[in-house]
TrEMBL record:
Gene responsible for this protein: Tlcd2
Highest rank taxon of the organism: Eukaryota
Residue stretches making up the TLC domain: 1-177
SMART domains xref list: TLC
Protein name, as recorded: TLCD2 protein
Cellular component, GO annotation: plasma membrane
Membrane topology: Multi-pass membrane protein
Organism per entry: Aegithalos caudatus (Long-tailed tit)
Localization annotation: Membrane
TM annotation in the entry: 55-74, 80-96, 116-137, 149-171
UniProt keywords, alphabetically: Membrane, Transmembrane, Transmembrane helix
One of the protein's GO biological processes: phospholipid homeostasis
Length: 177
């Protein structure tokens, strides 16, 4: 459990003051492994899915790979990348939703419970986290080099609308059929 992002902030409160240069031991490795995961998933989608089915996720992965890659290469913004990894907590429920759909278990209590957990974690770990990250970036714009600020701003400008659209699709599909 020491590698989970929320624990890192509890165990290393100094990160809440400095997301640029401060990170605990192992955090850099966690972000580097995450880059590896996103690269592997990107290549897997490229090889095994039709482009029209996966272009949004490929685009998402590209943004994450670039942003996390900068953190890994520069050994900076690792704390910021850890905050971004909070978004992935919701991925558990998104993936479980896909599995339940593929198993044709849409009309079950398990699917309904997952839908509620998916929506709740989506708001907390995706929408709120992305809003917090955008706010942090804006408030710290004078402390972030222009090129890095540009990458971060473009990344947030891409990720936030993508996640709002996905939230709308989830609501429409699971709650407003």
């Amino acid at each position: 459990t020491h590698n989970l992002s929320p624990c890192r902030f509890y165990l290393h409160p100094e990160m809440s003051k400095d997301l640029v240069g401060t990170h605990p031991p192992g955090a850099h490795s966690l972000v580097a492994v995450s880059v590896g995961y996103f690269l592997e998933d990107f290549v897997d989608m490229l090889c095994n899915q039709k482009l029209h089915q996966s272009w949004e996720l490929l685009f998402h992965h590209s943004v994450v790979i670039i942003c996390f890659g900068i953190a890994v290469l520069l050994h900076q913004y690792v704390g910021f990348a850890l905050v971004a990894l909070l978004v992935e907590i919701n991925s558990i429920f998104l993936h479980l939703r896909q599995i339940l759909l593929m198993a044709n278990l849409v009309h079950t209590a398990c699917y309904r419970l997952n839908s509620l957990l998916n929506l709740g974690t989506y708001v907390v770990f995706r929408i709120a986290t992305l809003a917090w990250m955008s706010r942090w970036l804006f408030l710290n714009r004078r402390n972030v080099p222009p090129a890095t600020y540009a990458v971060g701003t473009v990344g947030m400008a891409i990720m936030t609308p993508m996640n709002v659209v996905l939230f709308y699709r989830l609501l429409r599909s699971d709650f407003f059929k």
